Each structure stands twice: as C-alpha cells, then as structure tokens.
Amino acid sequence: MTAGLRFVDTTLRRLFGWILAVPLIFWAVMLIDFLGFSIGTVVWYGPQLLNAPWWAWAFIPDCPLAALYGMIAYYQFRSQKKPDWLAPLAAVSCIKYGIWTVLFWGTKWAATGEYLPIEIGLVVVHLALAGQGILLLPMFTQIRLRTRLLAIGWLVASVVVDYGYGHHPALVAPVTPMQAGTWAAVLTTMLAVLVVVVYPRVPLSGATARSDARS
Questions:
Q1: Rounded Cα–Cα distance for residues 143 and 138 (Å)
Q2: pLDDT above 50 for 43
Q3: C-alpha 129: how far from chain center
Q4: For residue 205, what pLDDT band results from cuts at 50, 70 and 90?
Q5: Which of 7, 89, 124, 185 is 20–30 Å from 98 (CA)?
Q6: Interatomic CA distance for residues 20 and 79, integer angstroms
C-alpha cells in the first residue's frame, strides 16, 4: 500500500471509528438509513415493484437497499463483528448508487436550470450515502478476493437487470436509459478496480492481523 493510500486509509478509519464511538452520531446514521430504506422502497419504488416480476425485486430499489446494507454493516462493526459478505456489498452499493444519483440530478439541472427542493434534498442524502460507503473502504484489507468479487458481481447483475431487462429507476429528461446505464457500468468498473486492485489484502497489526490470517 502506497504512502498516499495509507494516509487516506488511516483518515477513513479515524472518521469511521468516531462515528461508531459517538452514540448520537451513530444512531442518527441508523435512523437516516432506516428512513431512506423505508420511504425509498415504498414511495419511490413501490409502484415499480408492484409491476415487476418477483425475481427482479432484489435489484430494483437500488438506493434504499444500499442504505439498508450500510445500516446493517455499520451496526455489525459497532458490535465488533468481523466483516462478512454484507460489508463489502454495502460499501460498493452505497458508493455506486450515491454517485449515480448525484450524476442523474446534476445532468437534469444542467439541462433545465431548475432546482426543486426535493431534488436538492435527494442529492444531499445521496452524497451522504456515498460517503457512508467510502468510510467502509478500509475494511477491504480484511476481505478475501472471492468475497470482493461477489460484491462486484452483484453490481454487475444489477446493471443487467436494470438496463438489460428494463427495470431501471424512473428517469427524467434529458437522461436516457443508455446514458444512465453507461454511468452504472462505468461506476461498477471503477469500483471493481478500486476494491480488487487498489485495496490489496495486507497484513494488519495486532489481534486483527492474527484473526485475518485465520480467515
């Protein structure tokens, strides 16, 4: 791991540890994630889910599910549980769908010049969602390659279901399915490089390293 990456890694670990250590901050994150999952699934994606085949349900409410994964992953870390398959899935999902949503509304704003309050609120919330995923990146040093690949594989499957079978989120002009699908594919590729190549599985210090070596 390079010096620059180590600095970023250390900074993210400290911020993440601070969130877990301060009850008010931690439970605020939990509440926001829960509301994001509940409201997003029912209000934003509810009609779409009712008209979709059952096999697509796990891929349709992208952002709400990312918030749910993030909520569970943060709770697991606060409970001092070792990261499992859900933690890397939470990280890449929160980052991908957080950034995708910002690109979506940013494109709409650039074309129309119209900034609705709800749209601004959605951008703020999804920037926070992306940040929540970024803070989980350091734990990839404890995650085996096959588990990382499973998380990326889920994102690839989501792109296929969303844009291959037409179950993508509702879009507004000027964003087209081709454009939205391209963003999703590019973000998935960038995350794959980040978590498979950039973040190596390196020995950690102390008890964490010994535990990691046994996995």
A1: 10
A2: yes
A3: 7
A4: very low
A5: 7
A6: 9
What is d(CA 9, CA 5) in angstroms, rounded to the nearest whole number?
6
Question: What are the angstrom distances between the C-alpha of 47 and each of 43, 65, 69?
Answer: 8, 16, 22
Rounded Cα–Cα distance for residues 109 and 13 (Å):
34
Q: CA-CA distance, 33 to 172, in Å (whole number)?
A: 25
Reported as a pLDDT band with limits 50, 70 and 90, residue 207 is very low
> Do residues 60 and 52 touch, judged by C-beta distance below 8 A?
yes
Question: In angstroms, what CA-CA distances link 68 with 24, 97, 106, 210?
Answer: 19, 13, 24, 30
Q: What is the 3-state secondary structure (H, E, C) of the chain?
A: CCHHHHHHHHHHHHHHHHHHHCHHHHHHHHHHHHHHHHHHHHHHCHHHHHCCCHHHCCCCCHHHHHHHHHHHHHHHHHCCCCCCCHHHHHHHHHHHHHHHHHHHHHHHHHHHCCCCHHHHHHHHHHHHHHHHHHCCHHHHHHCCHHHHHHHHHHHHHHHHHHHHCCCCCCCCCCCCHHHHHHHHHHHHHHHHHHHHHHCCCCCCCHHHHHHHHHC
Q: Distance from CA of residue 202 to its chain's centroid?
A: 23
How far is the C-alpha of 176 from the C-alpha of 144, rounded, in Å? 37
Q: How far apart are CA 29 and CA 89, in angstroms?
A: 18
Condensed to tens digits (0 to 9), the pLDDT of residues 59-100 reads 999 999 999 999 999 999 999 887 788 999 999 999 999 999
Q: Give the Å distances, CA to CA, from 67 to 24, 71, 126, 161.
A: 18, 6, 10, 20
